[in-house]
Design goal:
This protein is an alpha+beta fold. It has 3 domains: 106 residues, Thrombin, subunit H; 99 residues, Beta Barrel (Thrombin, subunit H), CATH 2.40.10; 98 residues, Roll (Pdz3 Domain). It has a 6-stranded antiparallel beta barrel with strand order 1-2-3-6-5-4. The protein has a 6-stranded antiparallel beta barrel with strand order 7-8-9-12-11-10. Strands 14, 15, 16, 17, 18 and 19 form a 6-stranded antiparallel beta sheet that branches. A hairpin with a 5-residue loop joins strand 2 and strand 3. 38% of the residues are buried.
């Protein structure tokens, strides 16, 4: 190895160690106990505000349960300097696998906070650094690159998490909820999942997704999403229909059932209707419709573009989504 190679290695090492020195004090080992004191969950988290707000994964806080932490649940956050604090649940969103806690650590000195970056600025191939607590080994550092952008991953609820970052930084169970960092020490993602059968294929929820979720968790403890009250399935469209009506895509979302009293029923949506779009945006699957039924559409009239049996050409159905009934 020549002198130039050593210089490059030193430069890389210096970048990683500088980020770790700055950020490690903000990263916590998370432990969750039920009302009887039994451990039900563990993982990582990181403080991102001076007053102790901490971000982690929903599945870490819920410990595999469907519901938010029950009364009596105790959450502890341990930091690299040996300090250990109680943390209180503020809110969580299992559909993006994010949870917001607040750590009461101001009485023992201010908590360090890590700066939030922008995942929209991330490029493939740039350095990605992860700090967490894999397999119980607290405050472990791994590094790699951002392998891919714009991935989607299905949450435990069945919904797709959009704009997931893929990295080859080595992650293991226990890294969940820890930060994925760029070379400037800014959080670009929240580590959330691995593929056990693969090597170095790991995923993080983009920090831009988290930045949109956090204000809603602060305000409501949950994320409100639009709810239509239908069950649907993706179906291909006859090419003759696509050509005849000048459609931009060759598949849509067929309405398989309509719930009684739902916004869809009140708008006279029918079984067999094929949804092609909402408010001018194309819909080709249930996942796309889920993404488009965001908080901005709750209790506001929307217009669905629909193909209906016995009607020539698309029809337009006005519907007013309500807030989602699930948490």
């Amino acid at each position: 190895m020549g002198a130039r190679d050593f210089s490059l290695l030193d430069s890389y090492s210096q970048t990683v160690t500088e980020v770790v020195d700055r950020v490690a004090p903000s990263v916590a080992a998370m432990r969750v106990f039920d009302a009887a004191g039994r451990p039900v969950g563990s993982g990582s988290g990181f403080v991102f505000t001076p007053d102790g707000y901490l971000l982690t994964n929903s599945h870490v806080v819920r410990g595999g349960r469907k519901d938010p932490p029950e009364a009596g649940t105790k959450i502890r956050a341990s930091f690299a300097d040996g300090r250990d604090f109680a943390a209180s649940w503020v809110g969580d969103d299992p559909h993006t696998d994010l949870a917001l806690l607040q750590v009461d650590g101001l009485s023992q000195g201010a908590l360090f906070s890590v700066p939030i970056g922008r995942s929209a600025d991330v490029r493939r191939g740039e350095i990605a650094i992860a700090i967490g607590n894999p397999l119980g080994f607290e405050h472990t550092v791994t590094a790699g690159i951002v392998s891919a952008l714009g991935r989607s991953m299905r949450a435990s609820t069945g919904r797709l998490i959009p704009d997931v970052l893929q990295t080859d930084a080595a992650l293991n169970p226990g890294n969940s909820g820890g930060p994925l960092l760029n070379s400037r020490g800014e959080v670009i993602g929240v580590n959330t999942a691995i593929i056990p059968q693969a090597q170095s294929i790991c995923f993080a929820v983009a920090i831009d997704v988290a930045s949109a979720v956090i204000p809603q968790l602060l305000r409501d403890g949950r994320v409100r999403r639009g709810y239509l009250g239908i069950a649907g399935a993706t179906v291909p469209l006859d090419r003759r229909l696509v050509v005849a009506y000048g459609l931009a895509h060759a598949q849509g979302l067929r309405v398989m059932s309509v719930e009684q009293g739902s916004p869809a029923q009140l708008a006279f949506l029918r079984e067999g209707d094929i949804i092609l779009g909402i408010d001018g945006r194309d819909v080709t699957s249930a996942d796309e419709l889920h993404q488009l039924l965001s908080q901005e559409r709750v209790n506001k009239e929307c217009v669905l573009k629909v193909l209906r049996t016995g009607v020539a050409g698309p029809v337009y159905v006005a519907v007013r989504p309500t807030a989602a009934l699930d948490v």
